[in-house]
Amino acid sequence: MIYQNLLNKTQTLAVIGLGYVGLPVALAFAKKVKVIGFDISEAKIKTLNQGKDPNFELEDEAFEGADITFTNQLEELKAATFFVVAVPTPIDASNTPDLTPLLSASRTVGKVLKKGDYVVYESTVYPGCTEEDCIPVLERESGLKFQEDFKVGYSPERINPGDKVHTLETIIKVVSGSCATSAEEVAKVYELVVEAGVHRASSIKVAEAAKIIENTQRDLNIALMNELSLIFNKMNINTYEVLEAAGTKWNFLKFTPGLVGGHCIGVDPYYLTYKASKLGHNPKVILSGRNINDSMGYYVANQTIKNVLKSSGKKLNELRILLMGVTFKENVKDIRNSKVVDIIRELNDFNIDLDIADPMADAEEFEHEYGIHLNQRIGKDYDAVIVAVNHREYLDFDEAYFQSITKEDALLVDIKGTYKGKIKNMKYWSL
Fold it and tell me: How far is CA 29 from CA 35, 55, 148, 338, 348, in A?
């Protein structure tokens, strides 16, 4: 029934949280049904009402023909009957899940929840979180009874920032509900916008678990590549050349070493290990992979210093280094949980003269988040250049460019192997 009412535009869908996940979801639905886009950030709402994406992920055309109202006013949310919660689920300084945004969003929805409404969570959580942590908040705030008065679903987000190929519409969507009826209603609603179709999980917990292992699997595979890089570096073997050779086998999984940050792969496994520990299981393999990946920024910084000192004969405080790229991955402005920060902090601990530049990152936001000044300066006479994030703006750089901004015998640190095979005369190091 709610599916048909949304389709007829006699009822309204609301998306809570308009970040990298929520905004694409809201705009996709707004091409089919009436939508309210809600976010607590007044500045973000102002930008969205101008038809602009504050995250610079979506083109202005994405707003065209969208039946959507952007607001930060709770009163306007009362018009909605189908709520999609897409807020961040970060970790704190001790790598413990921080449910503050999720529970706050649940309180917001609970305040406007009515009989017959649906609430679907997209935020990544540990199995059981929706039913054990979120639903009690909805009941308490609304005074309504779960299942009897309102239904809940879970459909984990699969948005990949910076990826223009794998989008909401083209990736199969996992959906689930608190009962057979709600599961089917949620599935039909998402089928309106997901061209690739939906996968109906048997329960909310199964859907939650499926999401959490997607990124845990990637984390562990990258951890293996990073450990291989540590080993091969001691053997003076280029890891990317090894992977290129091994990749000729049909069933070899093509992962590469690198910095694992961001709000997904570098965070989600901690939600699973937290829950496992609560249940009395020590998740040794997952935590081992996390330990390796969390250490790579410091490793890159120390290898840079070691290689520069070996060739230059200078003292640490005489070195000048340029670091290029600080976002958590290429071609996005998102700086959350960027592991490049570990490189910067390690170099700063040695009082090295460091210039930091990134064409995507907001300098004010970066300084607010990390207390590090992003001077955006690219000067001359560097002893080393670290290309930490391979933004599209950097891909066409050649050896002549790097030689033009460095001293003789300078080192190029190419973390992702972007320039492999292109550097003939400079000293070169990559993971």
Answer: 7, 19, 27, 31, 46
Could you give all domains of the chain from N- to C-terminal order, each with its CATH number? 2-202 (3.40.50.720), 224-429 (3.40.50.720)
| Structure tokens given for 19 | 């970040």
| Residue 163 clears pLDDT 70, i.e. is over it | no
- Which residues of 78-225 form beta strands (DSSP E)? 80-85, 118-121, 151-154, 173-175, 198-200
For residue 71, give the H/E element and its range. Answer: strand 68-71
Contact (Cβ atoms closer than 8 angstroms) between residue 183 and residue 177: yes
Question: Which amino acid is present at 200?
Answer: R
**C-alpha dihedral (282, 284, 287, 288), degrees to nearest 10:** 160
* Residue 109 · residue 138 · CB < 8 Å: yes
Number of separate helices (H) and strands (E) present in the chain: 16, 13
CB of 1 within 8 A of CB of 186? no
Mean pLDDT of 213-241: 96
Residue 174, Cα to own-chain centre: how many angstroms? 18
Torsion of the alpha carbons at 76, 77, 78 and 79, rounded to the nearest 10: 80
- The pLDDT of residue 167 is above 90: no
Question: Read out DSSP for 89-131?
Answer: --B-TTS-B--HHHHHHHHHHHHH--TT-EEEE-S---TTHII
Residue holding tokens 């120390």? 302
Given a contact cutoff of 8 angstroms between Cβ atoms, the answer to whether 429 and 304 are in contact is yes
Q: Are 324 and 358 in contact (CB under 8 A)?
A: yes
Quote the pTM value.
0.92
Length of the chain: 431
> Looking at the DSSP assignment, which residues form a beta bridge with residue 427?
411
CA angle, corner 240, sides to 235 and 242, nearest 5? 60
Is 374 in a helix, a strand, or coil? coil
Catalytic residues: 264
DSSP letter for 132, please.
I
pLDDT of residue 49: 92
Cα distances (angstroms) measured from residue 314 to each of 87, 356, 410, 425:
48, 21, 12, 21
User: Tokens standing for 273?
Assistant: 């290990």
| Nearest alpha-carbon partner for 63 in 75, 72, 76, 54 | 54
